[in-house]
Each structure stands twice: as structure tokens, then as C-alpha cells.
Amino acid sequence: MIRRQIKKRTPHFLRDEGFRYKRIPKNWRRPTGYTSKLRMNLKYRPSKVRVGFRGPKTVRGLHASGFEEVMIHTVKELEIINPKKQAVRIGGTVGTKKRLDIAKRAGELDIRVLNMKG
């Protein structure tokens, strides 16, 4: 919710001259040209991506659901998870059998698993 409020305030960053030509996509690319007016921060040009437009400190680094992501590989690692603040992501090297065990135990402990289907 906090991130959504901040996102409303930040401008939509356009690629330099992206509005002018159809062949130039709208997605952001940093202007690098020596005489680029956008690189020189001239007032009549749109905003440039800068550190001041960062996300809010309270939600920085969190998953979109608002939980802190924790990577796990075994069932035993679930015991140290705080279900109110943290959600788990099962490592890519974990096999199907152990994944099912982790998902079952996470259900018992009421822990959210971010990368389980269904």
C-alpha cells in the first residue's frame, strides 16, 4: 500500500525522444550523448531516473505481498521463520519430494510459500 502511494507521485520515465518517433520504444534508457538535452537536465525535458525517486525505506527489499523473502532448502529451516513477517522461497535445487514435504510443513505452521504452484 505504501509503495502504491509513492508510485503515484513518481513520474513515468520516458526514453529520450521516445515520444517523437514510433521506432524508438517507450521504455527507459539512460541518455549518454554528449549534447543530449535530457542528459544535461534541461527544464523543458521530462524527468530522469535518479536516486531521489527510490521506493520507500520501510518496504524496500520486500516481496510484493509485503513479506520478507527467505530462501530455504530443508524442512528444518522452516522452524526459524516468523509467519507474520516472513515468507519462504524454496531453492531451485530442491527436488519434488522434499518440496512437497516443505509445502506440507509450511501449511501446518501457516507460512506462505512464494514459489509453489496451486
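the 2nd protein, sequnce then structure:
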Amino acid sequence: MVSDSRWLYFISNRDGPSDIYGVPVTKNGGAGGTVERLSTGLGAHTISLSRDGTRLAYSHWASRSSIWSMPMPTNPPVMSTAATRVTNANEFIESLTISLDGKWLYYDSNLPGNADIFRISVAGGDPEQLTTDRADDFAPEPSPDGKKIAFHSWRSGSRDIYVMRLDGGGIQQVTNTPRLQEGLARWSPDGQALTFTQISSPFGVWIARRDKGGHWGEPKLIEAGGFFPLWSPDGKHIAFGSSLFGGLLKIMPADSGAERTVVQAAGDLAWLAWPRNGPIYYSIHDARGNASIWSVSPDKGPARLLINLDPALHPSLRSTIAIGNGRLYFSAEDRESDIWVMETRRP
């Protein structure tokens, strides 16, 4: 708010990319008029006004990420220098996964202006946009039969889990908790349940099951504090991280039973993948922020370093991974920021 307290300035993505808006404010603190858009295409991240309101400083922050692919190493550990780019748009990708048949990569992208769900054939070609809602949609997870996707979205005003057909129809809201935030849903191998994370504190691993009529029941908390839950290929167990920024990888029965620690990761555990007939794969960030991909037997064996992501070629802050067709798919992210000052005229 400016010093004369007559106008409130803020940044919003209400019309697409983030821009600067202003609204007059009354002496009682209420809106004294309609919101006005004061810039177009700035991509402003933060703003600050001079005392007299004639100059405005803003930061322009940009983050661009792509999906990369490389063969699973036969003689690890290796660097990610052999990776090839799968996507190459001016977009930010937060999460990705691969279909059970290994034919499709699903991911979220802000290419339309807000985050939507896309998929692209692993054989190449143009991406296909699956959601078009104005609210942000993240973390797609295709059902085992390939007919539906689960994802989390802000459509209800808070982060909730949704399921829909690939054609955009038959949308079901699985969770509806205005004070909590759910995300990162994963299908059970039989397609009758979802496990997901309560992203807001207190964190936790939950399961929602659906009946024979396709209706979703009330979700149940199965592990307080857990994060990144993932079903075992046979559906009998769930692997998860001990916390959002923890290093313990654990496994517990999907129905009931004691948990057990599989490995103490050498850094902050960031993502899990558990393909059929394989070990558990996970990504971590070490104390310096360097990302790497590891594997470990679910029966508790020594962890094996597979790939170090080159910090110059493939900087990674999330390390989302997917395994399929004998290949590793991962996201790499570049960030940059500049500060600008411009003369402005108050409304």
C-alpha cells in the first residue's frame, strides 16, 4: 500500500502471467472502486513503490524446466550428460509420471498461463493438453487401465484431489477439506484406491477407496508425518518418505501393520518410483543442493547410487522422476531473476 493509503497495489495472475494491479482503498479499509490492471506482460514477482509513488521497483523472476530422458545405467554411477531433452517449451513443469504401459509421459505445465495437465508420447510428437480449468492443476497420475487421471487442483479454493476421464469428463472430487491441502495422489495397482499426501502441516499419508459403484469413500489417515506415498507393484504395501525434507525411506502394509525403515537416504528425499519387477528408485538433494538418483531393494539392502545430475547441465530443485522402458525420465530447472525500476503514474 502506498503511503497516502489511498491505493493498494498487488501482483496477480488473474489474467494470465503475473502483472501489477491496483485498487482504491477507503478510510475504513474497504475497496473504493474496481481493480485496475496497471501492467501487461511484466511477469512481476515482487514490487516496491517509492514514498512519493512515482517510481516502482519490481523483480522479474523466471523459472523454466524441461523433461529429460536417459537410459538406466548399466555400470553406475554415471553423470546425466547422456540425457536428451523430451520437452523444450518456455514452461515450468512441477511433476511427471509415466503410464503403466510405458507409452505416455504425463506432466503439469504452466504453458497456457496457469498450470494444466499434459501428456506426450514417449515416441515423440506434440503434447496433448488434458485440462483447461482456470485453476492450477498439478501432479497427474494415470489410472492403471489408462482411462482416467488423478491430480490435485485448486478448483475448490484449496488443494484437493480430483479424478477425471482423459477426455475431461466425469470429474470426481475425491477430497474436500478447505483447511487442509492434499496432493501427490498415486493409484493402487487394481485402480480402486488412491494414496496421497496431506501437504499442509501436520503432514501425513492417506488412502481413499472407491466402492463398486465408483463412489469415493472418506479418506483415512494411515501414517502421520509421511510424504511421497507410493504403492508397491502388488498393492500390498506403501513406501513413503518420513517427512517432507527427511531422509528416511519407509515401507508399511497398505491395510495395517508396523512400518519399517528401508534406507537412510544421504540427503533430503525428493521423489519415489517403484516399477514392476524392480527396486525402489528415489531422488535426493544433498547439503549442497546437488541432486542424484538412487535405488534400493524393498527388502532392505544397501542403497545404490545410479546417476548424479550435472548441476550445470541439469540443475534440479525438485528431482521428480519416472521409470519406464529401461529409461529414466526427470525434470531439470533453470531459475533467474532481475530487478527493474520504472517511472510510473499513479492512477
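The mean pLDDT is 89. The chain has no helices and 29 strands.
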